[in-house]
Amino acid sequence: MTDSTAPLAYIESHLDDTLDRLFALMRVQSVSTDPAYAPECLKAAQLLANELTGLGFDARVAPTPGHPMVVAHHDGPGPHIFFYGHYDVQPVDPLNLWRRDPFDPAIETKADGARIIVGRGASDDKGQLRTFVEACRAWKETTGALPCKVTILFEGEEESGSVSLDPFLRANAEELKADFALICDTLMWDADTPGLTIGLRGMAAGEVTIHAARRDLHSGLYGGAARNPIQLLATILGEMKDADGHVTLDGFYDGVDPVSADVRKSWDALGFDDGEFLGDVGLRVPAGEKGTDALEQIWARPTAEVNGIWGGYTGEGFKTVIPAEAHAKVSFRLVGRQDPDKVWAAFEKHVRDRLPADCSAEFASRGPGSPAVSVPSDSPPLAATRAALDAEWGKAALIGCGGGIPVVTSIRTILDMDTVLVGFALPDDNIHSPNEKYELKSFHKGMRSWVRILGALGEMKAAKTVQAAAA
Amino acid sequence: MTDSTAPLAYIESHLDDTLDRLFALMRVQSVSTDPAYAPECLKAAQLLANELTGLGFDARVAPTPGHPMVVAHHDGPGPHIFFYGHYDVQPVDPLNLWRRDPFDPAIETKADGARIIVGRGASDDKGQLRTFVEACRAWKETTGALPCKVTILFEGEEESGSVSLDPFLRANAEELKADFALICDTLMWDADTPGLTIGLRGMAAGEVTIHAARRDLHSGLYGGAARNPIQLLATILGEMKDADGHVTLDGFYDGVDPVSADVRKSWDALGFDDGEFLGDVGLRVPAGEKGTDALEQIWARPTAEVNGIWGGYTGEGFKTVIPAEAHAKVSFRLVGRQDPDKVWAAFEKHVRDRLPADCSAEFASRGPGSPAVSVPSDSPPLAATRAALDAEWGKAALIGCGGGIPVVTSIRTILDMDTVLVGFALPDDNIHSPNEKYELKSFHKGMRSWVRILGALGEMKAAKTVQAAAA
To answer: Which of A210, A217, A231, A354 best probes binding to B when mutated, by most B CB atoms within 10 angstroms?
Structure first.
């Protein structure tokens, strides 16, 4: 059952057909942010639901207050996997910068001979989600079955804020819950190395206001005797880090683990160059904790950042004012098991502990924050996926992601699932820009990768009891 | 010659006349900021010049690119004193908040029985400058001479930026230079205690910009590895003061002297209440150096203040940005012999010493700054003035002034003279506001004070050779 020879051969002999189906999907003008394209969004959803029904899925177009979801289920012997993609695309303007009609896709050949699929959605996310659908087709056409039990969710509002996503996940949690999630909407490490994202940093963020005098004061009359809230805020924010770049908040590092030897080895193999990474933006000294390198700092270490600060007179010229208050927007990127609420509370304590008796602080936290999301490098689905990518590409990079991806957090918090992110896109794919493209190689080897991943996952024993039954 | 019995008696017997002359000056609508009142400004200058000519002064209306100056000289046996005042006034709007026509002055009686002179300029500065002119008249009318050689300068642009003052002082320095200067444009300590200002703090100020990456960065992609210039600026500004409130810049305290025992004793006698002073603006902890009280902090200690700060995202909501740069406006109030250029240079060094190798700082100093101005408490003119005030009021407060008064700095830097500031105004005089008033007691005892001061100064030996000859 999990011998992937036949489905891989199917991909090879049906490349033109897979491209035809991708083009058909790309011709649908499913721009989610512009209400004028709502019928096209529905059309894309229907196209995918019909196609999945044809492949034996129990598929439907599920309405939301915004654009509809596509939900599909297929039974199978292996673990229950949940695949997420999105059928909506970014607007195409400025149209005059496109080499061709963005909704009339075609294959072009680059100067170096590489062939690319050009058109809106080629990469983000129609091309990437189709690598998974075509892999399912290859298994079905050649074996009559899928190696895993599969639930698919295609969203139609990813490019316009995912407004309906969380309510939909909550309302349908029981139906959608599986053993773990897979997403194909991210980058490769480089053109020869698919990326396997194992961690996304979480976030705690908010605003602090320091109040001192009840009105702005003249620094001649009061300077020296009256507390300057800007100076106080600067001192407090400065003391948030020590000279070695460590964050000084109480308990900040609770739940932060060192990078495992396995992951470290994988990173070392990437040949990441701190100097090149920072040099691109005009910097050269990694700013994080002493003893860590830039890659670790962005993928595996938590941060404390001041994202905005303001207070006093900030216009032209000068005003010798001691303001009544000063403000900052502060955020913390979180890793491991750091608790966003505890980190924010530690920040509030750090501030309050440093206030003179006649000053006060006001905080506006941005809600509950989001914990980091990570897949341990030894988790069975990750190991299986990694082995499959190794088989197809000869290698796969275990990469971190310094930022969050909202849907992964939603899947984690609402559906209680880990997500393995597999990506075949490249940084120069022009997603969100004119002349979006997807390398034909990414599409081709992406489909082959999913054939292998489905096979490898099918050999896993289900990691845990699946509570949610397929519809 | 310096027995003031007769001139004091003259004041007593001519009170109504002195009021008539004050009212005549107050009826002139010499609002300097509004060009429509330029003829009135000229009229006020002519009135004063004519009056001084009548008193035997060699007086003239001296044109400037703006409103004219009144310059007058009178010979005398004692030291050569320079008296500054201004004949222009603030605008009167909102007119509907005045109890009477602001240019139709009158005596009103307050609920507590005290009589007040009401009208624009009653206190600032027509009433105050007239206390000096009437004292000169009293000496002339009763003795036929003045106890000192006197040069008077009345400005007509004090309320509109003193644009012509410095060029005029420079162009006429030789004519205007005297042994020391006297000004009557400040406050009393309280209703029973005239103020004798012995120090004005100086200033060094400017702007600093910290540059990090060459563009704004996403804190997910770069956070941790890329230097955050706001955090860096906060740390640098925070480290500008230690935990005890001392400024940490190299050599910052060079030229700062402790308060002398004489001055300290005088201050202790004032009964200044730190809690009340700070409580008025909602504070209660003196913010300056440990071991100093609020009065010393505002009058005799230098400061380092951040008057404005800005960087990153400061709008509604949140943006996880690491900005390319961060900015602050910084100022230092100076005392004693602190050198504004050296203080600013020490600030620049403090910043540069704390920059990582890939960041830079840009500075915009606000010109050369101004040194502090102070009159030692044992200087002969101050001692003579203080003794005269003691004789009239039973006491006099040696007070500091936390801010600068531009004309005093101009007199110091252009005419190389110390200034003794004597004031009879009260904080509730509504200067610059509707219903401006001057206590009749201030006017009466102010004239008597100047009679005594002129007498006391006349007994001084000229402190130094007067280089400038009267015209």
So the answer is: A231
